[in-house]
Amino acid sequence: MNQSILEELAAAWREGRQCILATIAATRGSVPRQTGTKMIVYPGGAISGTIGGGKFEALIVADCLTALDTGAAVLKSYVLREDEPGSFGAICGGEVTVLIEPQGLTEALYLIGAGHCSQALARLAGICGFRVTIVEDRAELVDGIESANSKITGVPAAEFIASRDWCLSDAIVLVSRNYQLDRDALEAALAKKGFGYIGMIGSRRKVLRVYDELRKRGVSNCVQRGPCPYRPRYRS
Predict the structure, then answer these.
(1) pTM score, two decimals?
(2) Which of 116, 117, 120, 153 is nearest to 134 (CA)?
(3) Residues near 33 by beta carbon (within 8 Å), at least 6 away in sequence
(4) Every domain range in the chain assigned CATH 3.40.50.720
(5) Helix or strand or coil: residue 46?
(6) Does domain 108-216 have CATH number 3.40.50.720?
(7) In this predicted model, what pLDDT tens digit does every residue of 66-110 receive, in sequence order?
(8) Which of 47, 100, 111, 164 has the greatest number of C-beta atoms within 10 Å?
């Protein structure tokens, strides 16, 4: 495997980014790239690497995005001859078989804060097989946390949450050092969609205060004193 592609796949796993790996599994006749050539396709159609270019590559990108929706690997052949059924106008003269593999993401836990609670959760989540990311503005706290797969220190938690595309395998837990940081992170999370779970540690007084302040900011979902779809459990 090309070293740069391998490194990029590893980085995508650490950062929780979905992607699809397309590999030329077999060739026959005249083709643009050799067996083993790889390309990464990201949601939205962005690519890294190339396995042929042109209409041929555009078709593969489209098939990769379809496979991302289903989650199933696909082995598909593409005819690069004009006079064959299924031809799309290519005139190379050969045939290419491509293995399309959606890169499955393990469940991911994003911990906002790096204090004692966060460190304990990171250790437990790691044992349970979660991919753990800690988001903390105090870099000196995260340096010694070995149970985290990734550590984010250069961006505020609310900004980090707002900048990501989340998926159902992602869980966000707010355990920062003060309620203002949790409040801002929760506001950013409630403006996003896609993640499977969000939780916030705190006493009943803290939780209700966060909800009240978010309601004053115009946040309407899950910031009332009555029944809440997130069913918060208060920690006294």
Answers:
(1) 0.64
(2) 153
(3) 24, 50, 51, 52, 96
(4) 108-216
(5) coil
(6) yes
(7) 998 788 899 998 887 666 655 555 556 688 899 999 987 778 999
(8) 111
